[in-house]
Amino acid sequence: MAETGHQRRVVFVVGSGRSGTSTMAVALRTLGLHVPQPEVPADDTNPKGFGEPQWAVDLHTELLRRANVQVSDARPSAWFDAGRLNTDDEVRERLATWLEHQFGQVTPLKGQSRAHGQELVVKDPRMAWFLGLWRSAAQRAQAVPAYVTMLRPVTEVVGSKQRYYAGRTGPTHADEVARTAAWVNMMLHTERSTRDQQRAFVRYADLLSDWTVPIHDLGRRFELATLRDATTNDVRAVHSFIDPGLRRVQLSWDDVDVPPALRVIAEETWEALDSLADEGGDSGSEAASAHATLDQLRTAYGDLYEDAEAMAQSTALAQRRAGRAEGRAEGRAHQAPGSSGSSGSSVADRVPHGVRAMVPPGVRQGLRRALGRQR
């Protein structure tokens, strides 16, 4: 339980992957907010570090697997699948216990106020699927939750993912469409999930241009004592960490090929979200207009996706028939003397996960039954 007069706070950094969430989380950590340890180690895709608690990443990975949802999932229905776990009592207890424990892990340094160590930053792009769980855990820990949503143009996010995550053959048209759709789905629902909460929207470009402005604003809005009392050495360290060169991918719509209807929704989603990052953009009459636009876009995207699923029925059914045929062929191979065939390899196994996610749930379930699978 938090001591009287020293309010616990937890800052959740959310938004699409490759939009600057790591830069924000590491900057806040460098200035003194506590990132629960151990952290996910840096790698070639993010050599300066992720600022992500390994425990949280492992939990989210487990929950997404249980919900049959991927990190960048374009399906509007995926929010309902993941959302069911937000009310799972066992999961809620695990997370609440872990978060409570984190507040006791940091002892203020000499000369720091007792508020230090009571301010955490938790970041993982998977978190957006389970914000209800985190909000509940923060409340049980008597901590004030706040949300920082990082904003980066969708074309740059798609380009960055293609640069660092594409296979050896490079990105395809399907990759560009799926990643654009997943960005729209993620950002529209994240905005709705954090509405009416203590939150801020930060443009990645603004963070790189002069990080002191948006981060000072976060400290003021969220009443973060750690940022207020940051030392000169802390500030110098962030200056060394952040530079405009971190924005290595800058693509436009000339570089990303997606259907016109999806492009319109993505462009309008970006414009509405971008307006929320302006001074006063997330409050007052202008905010009400932006929120209404985002609600309309969320409905429009759901309709577009539903139409896409309907058009893909023939492809899904063809895959189902092929899976059945291959399953029968493998069964015959297993029965043949000296057969070494494996039932673990099928047409469905060779379809990329992003493509499988586009197949309507009912069809996927039928395909699994046809292949003798349980999930």
Brief descriptors of the model:
disordered C terminus, four-stranded parallel sheet, 375 residues, globular, single chain, 7% strand, alpha/beta, Rossmann fold, 2 domains, disordered N terminus
Tell me what the structure shows.
The longest helix is centred in the last third of the chain and has 28 residues, at 284-311. It is globular, with a radius of gyration of 23 Å. It has helices at residues 21-30, 54-67, 78-83, 89-102, 131-140, 154-165, 173-194, 204-209, 212-222, 225-228, 232-241, 260-276, 284-311, 313-335, 347-350, 353-356, 361-370, and strands at 8-14, 119-123, 143-151, 199-203. It has a four-stranded parallel β-sheet with strand order 2-1-3-4, with helices on both faces. The protein folds into two domains: 8-256, P-loop containing nucleotide triphosphate hydrolases (Rossmann fold, 3-Layer(aba) Sandwich); 312-370. The model is unreliable at 1-5, 339-356 and 366-375 (pLDDT under 50). The chain is built from 17 helices and four strands. With 375 residues, it is α/β, with parallel strands linked by helices.
Structural class: alpha/beta
- The dominant shape is globular
Instruction: Predict the CATH topology of the largest domain.
Output: Rossmann fold
| CATH architecture descriptor of the largest domain | 3-Layer(aba) Sandwich
Give the terminus-to-terminus CA distance. 41 Å
| Total count of domains | 2
Instruction: Report the total helices.
Output: 17
CATH class wording of the largest domain: Alpha Beta
The description of the largest β-sheet is: 4 strands, parallel
Mean pLDDT: 86
Poorly predicted tracts of residues: 1-5, 339-356, 366-375
The amount of beta strand, in percent, is 5-15%
Strand order of the largest sheet: 2-1-3-4
